[in-house]
Amino acid sequence: MELKKKTYDVKQDSGTITGYASTWTREPDSYGDVVVRGAFTESIEQIKAQGKVLPLLFNHDANNLNAYIGTVYDLEEDEHGLKFTAEFDDTPEGQKARNLALSGRVVKFSFAYDILDQAEITLEDGRKANELRKLNIHEVSLVLYPANPDTSVVEVKAGRRNRKSDEEIIKQIISLANQLLNDEVDDTEPEEESNAKSEELDTVNDEERERKALMLKEAEELLTKE
């Protein structure tokens, strides 16, 4: 049985990406196919019943381990099409793909599938099309060129900035900022010398102190941000 693929526009989300892998448009795609609502129902039910997840690939390259860029953890049919949400892997390839989607450079989706039921139909305008009625979906891919131009991105999120990998760095920033603030107190000059300083130098010191205090505040907010 030939494994076929469909492509659609994306709408993203950062550490995650949400979009439509298929839509119910009656405009034939580049394969001459239209997908009917309900075509994925049984496949989705089987995936959920078996506790499985689908891979998010880059450009359907299933033979390349580096092309596995995430995991599809939510898949459902709605009035517009087959909607999904996937989480990007915390790998160089996964994060590169996330950045490509966030920047709008790669914003299309595709899916690989087996055909379990199909039939030739005549559309309202008289054109012939192949109606896909029952499909078994295997993966969703982030791709450059879509077969169906009717899809759209729903959401792209940059993800949580404060990942575990950042936590130690942020703590070091806080420690450094605290040290700098303490040094300000320890290095205070005697009153008679301090009075000799110009107003300009006092202003510079005040600005520097405020900058350090702001750096400390921002680091603390990053560390506790959800």
Outline of this structure?
The radius of gyration is 27 Å and the shape is elongated.
Mean pLDDT: 79
Number of domains: 2
Radius of gyration: 27 Å
| Helical residue percent band | 25-40%
What's the total helix number?
5
Q: Approximately how much beta-strand content do the residues carry?
A: 25-35%
Give the overall shape, derived from the CA principal axes. Answer: elongated
Total strands: the figure is: 9
Write structural notes for this entry.
32% of the residues lie in helices and 34% in strands. Strand 5 and strand 6 (81-88) form a beta hairpin. The model is unreliable at 160-165 (pLDDT under 50). With 226 residues, the protein is an alpha+beta fold. Strands 1, 2, 3, 4, 5, 6, 7, 8 and 9 form a 9-stranded mixed sheet that branches. It folds into 2 domains: 4-157, no CATH class; 164-224.
